[in-house]
Design goal:
homodimer; DNA-binding
DNA sequence: TTTAATAATGCAAACGTTTCTATAATATAT
DNA sequence: ATATATTATAGAAACGTTTGCATTATTAAA
């Protein structure tokens, strides 16, 4: 490996001069600068990042901790994160926890060995002491997508509101018996969506029917199966319903399939509305009505926030930023 | 930040003893070891990764350079990479090039500042001197998914064979006029798939009709549009066809939509076969027949190969590893 | 017990930078 | 020409580790 000393020798100057010439934050004679640049080119010198980082106490790297990049909501988020990080000269380390708190803890441990300057976390589940801990220590960190039950820096959407609006839309368009596929109630985000569903019914003077509340609590990648099974069992029990509010697009897709398999039509017989607005949700048949989460923008905002945190030494009161979601009506609702 | 010296002081020993106690590759008395461990716990000491890396000359980090994590073939690959890297104590830095050679070069430059121990690259396009360069320098690197026109360490599938088999299947099941949506011919992988298509026709004694070769050369994320447009224009020109071989699932989905929009049925009137076997390809209507790429496994193999490269000092002849693809027949073909 | 072998520990150098301090070279004002 | 201010450069210390070498403490053998 070629070091700054080699360059210095080649150019006939001291290492410190090379450093100054390269960093540009001290004056060095133009002629020597040229010599140095020449030597750099000749030897194909690249400053050693580790040495620099060690000296400066930062790595220009952030960690992105998410449950699973294969869950189709995360690629867009990751892109938002990576693009923004890159823009400011930062790199992104990708970590998948598979909803496992233990894995999450291990990653945090690992990344904290002065590895990364800050962390973006979509927390695994309810247990969050390790995150509280992190915050207490003043480590730069922002929570994304999934809110957490204490005040922390976060960039999220208002899941209650979004669900409320989606269900209200269904009600307004004449649906009376709206089933919900409720998602893992361990996660605040699904609890919120569930709450939004109930509140919308209540506010419209409609009853919340126990039998229309479906979906299991598991969190598998094959989420669409949950949607399929939920609707399937509704039919099996001969429960009538004229709409389905699925708490994810994947579940909505499963629901649509189950409805079709039973010989009903979407949206003529049963309307289906999803949540997420995945890239391919417009591609299915019928194109899915859904709530759009600004995932890319969440990533962008989160990185901005994180870098602000990294670059201020004074500890500030955490703030949560609510990004606006949007109801997208396509053709799975009448 | 708490350093090894702090621990040493607290435990009443020298830093070197702490280092030895922690690394475990030298004998240290049990009682002192306990004292040290206690001090570590008490002070919440974490070894500084940068210092370690600087000393040892490696970072236990690899770079994953891909066009775009939002392209749905990459999440599975990334997961394979990350899981395997993690298994061996490595971290993964994610880089999206957007098919831009310049961005790719910049990333390689950046990551090479002794940042990463090795690189996994799905190259952007035809221009590959910078990759040749990398290889010449003996930098650990393996090419993934997209083969390259020189001999390099790579983990790929046999795109020619896979396309050949898919089209042969179509022919065997009675299709005569098979259209292809050909993909960006700048990329070897699409050239290979195209070649497989032609060869299958030839070997079956069928003509290669110019008018059935469709699709533009662009590489946008909204790939399904290419499929839609291609089939749309076939109808517009009143060209008859009884099957479509789409070079990606996304294009296949677009194609199906266009076929439906024109009042035809898949697969009764026209069969469609895709390529990739994305997670949601089984979820569309009808479930898509396609060629399955073992993306996760490609990631796994590639990391194994890369780590082998990293851990051998002697430069070896590059080898390319062909993973086997699989024809998955669902319901979009008759 | 004394000596030899082994185990445990400390010291200092090294990894490749950056930056502080000091000195040398040059330019500017008198 | 001399004194002063400025600019350019070198030297050395520091960042937090690990490790080779030297030293000291401990154990085993005689």
């Amino acid at each position: 490996m070629v070091t700054i000393k080699d360059v210095a020798k080649k150019a006939g100057v001291s290492p410190s001069t090379v450093s100054r010439a390269l960093s540009g934050n001290a004056s060095v004679k133009e002629s020597t600068k040229q010599k140095i640049l020449e030597a750099v080119k000749l030897l194909n010198y690249r400053p050693n990042f580790l040495a620099q980082g060690l000296k400066e106490g930062k790595t220009k790297t952030i960690g992105l901790i998410i449950p699973n990049i294969r869950n189709p909501i995360y690629p867009a988020l990751a892109r938002g994160v990576e693009d923004t990080a890159k823009k400011f000269g930062y790199s992104v380390v990708l970590c998948n926890t598979d909803e496992d708190v233990k894995a999450e803890k291990e990653y945090i441990q690992k990344l904290r060995k002065r590895w990364v300057d800050g962390l973006l976390i979509a927390p695994a589940a309810k247990e969050t002491e390790h995150i509280v801990e992190l915050q207490k220590e003043g480590f730069p960190m922002v929570i994304i997508v999934r809110n957490v039950d204490f005040l922390a820096n976060a960039v999220i959407i208002d899941n209650f509101r979004a669900a409320y609006d989606a269900v209200s839309f269904l009600i307004k368009t004449g649906h009376q018996r709206i089933a919900i596929i409720k998602g893992n109630q361990q996660l605040a985000l699904y609890r919120e969506r569930f709450r939004g569903y109930k509140q919308a019914l209540l506010d419209a003077g409609l009853p919340v029917h126990e039998e229309l509340i479906t979906g299991d609590e598991s969190d598998s990648v094959q989420w669409s199966l949950d949607g399929y099974n939920a609707v399937y069992s509704l039919f099996a029990q001969n429960i009538k319903f004229d709409a389905v509010f699925a708490t994810t697009d994947l579940r909505a897709i499963g629901a649509i399939r189950a409805i079709k398999d039973h010989g009903y039509k979407v949206p003529e017989d049963i309307s289906v509305i999803g949540f997420d607005n995945l890239e391919f949700s417009s591609l299915i048949d019928p194109p899915l009505s859904t709530v759009s989460q600004p995932l890319y923008d969440i990533g962008v905002r989160a990185v901005n926030k994180l870098l602000a945190l990294i670059n201020t030494e004074t500890m500030q009161e955490p703030t949560v930023e609510i990004m606006s979601s949007e109801l997208i009506i396509r053709r799975s609702t009448r």
